[in-house]
Amino acid sequence: MQVTPFRIDVPDAILADLAVRLERTRLAEEVDAGDWGRGTHRGYLASLVRSWRHEFDWRAQEAALNELPHRRVHVDGLGIHVLHVRGRGPAPLPLLLTHGYPDSFVVPSLPGYGFSDPPRTTGTTFRIGELWHTLMSGHFAALEEPDLLAADLREFFRPLRPAAPATEGR
After folding, report:
1. Count of helix runs (H) and strand runs (E) in the chain
2. Which of 41, 95, 102, 146 could crosslink 141 through cysteines, CB 3.0-4.6 Å?
3. b/e code 127-157 from CB counts within 10 Å (16+ = b)
């Protein structure tokens, strides 16, 4: 399993394009005097767009995010973006957050989101448990104790399978 350090570095051209699109945003007319049951309140959305356009500092956010230990790991042919942070204490348990192993937690981005590769085949979303098991059993497990919790992880992230049809007479 190939693991490489990763830094967030959104090109200036993408940020410039976003600024133009935010500037050109056309908001729909208010329906039912801003009743949230019929959609986003127009005034709220206008304020959010204005904030993103004129107040939000992506480069400052990017720098803060880059203080975290980002990695890209190739799992079953997909590049998966993860944060790998070591836990604290004498015997920390792993924590896998999705959308490590002992003494750490790993935060992978789902395929097609964040900085992970998009799925190359249909059905990838039904294999997330398998992907995460491979991820956790590979590089991150090798850093510590490879067999610790492996059976629990396999069971916990077991892919969902359709229930067997009920048999008559039961």
Report:
1. 6, 5
2. 146
3. bbbbbbbbbbbbbbbebeeeeebeeebeeeb
Q: For 60, how many CA atoms within 13 A lie in the half-sphere containing its CB?
A: 3
Q: What is the pLDDT of residues 120-151, one digit of tens each?
A: 888 887 788 888 888 777 655 544 444 444 44
Helix (H/G/I), strand (E/B), else coil: 105: strand
**Which residues sit opposite 106 in a β-bridge?**
84, 96
Q: What's the rounded Cα separation, in Å, for the pair 48 and 12?
A: 22
Instruction: Read off the tokens for 4.
Output: 């490489």
Residue 162, C-beta contacts closer than 8 angstroms, at least 6 positions apart:
none
Question: What percent helix, strand, coil does the chain show, rounded to 5?
Answer: 40, 15, 50
Percent of the chain scoring above 90 in pLDDT = 26
**Sign of the four-CA dihedral 1, 77, 113, 10:** positive
| Amino acid occupying residue 72 | R
Domain boundaries in the chain? 8-64, 68-156
Give me the DSSP letters along 107-128.
EEPPTTSTTSPPPSSTTGGGGH
Residue 112 · residue 154 · CB < 8 Å: no
17 is written with which tokens? 């394009």
Sequence letter at residue 91: A
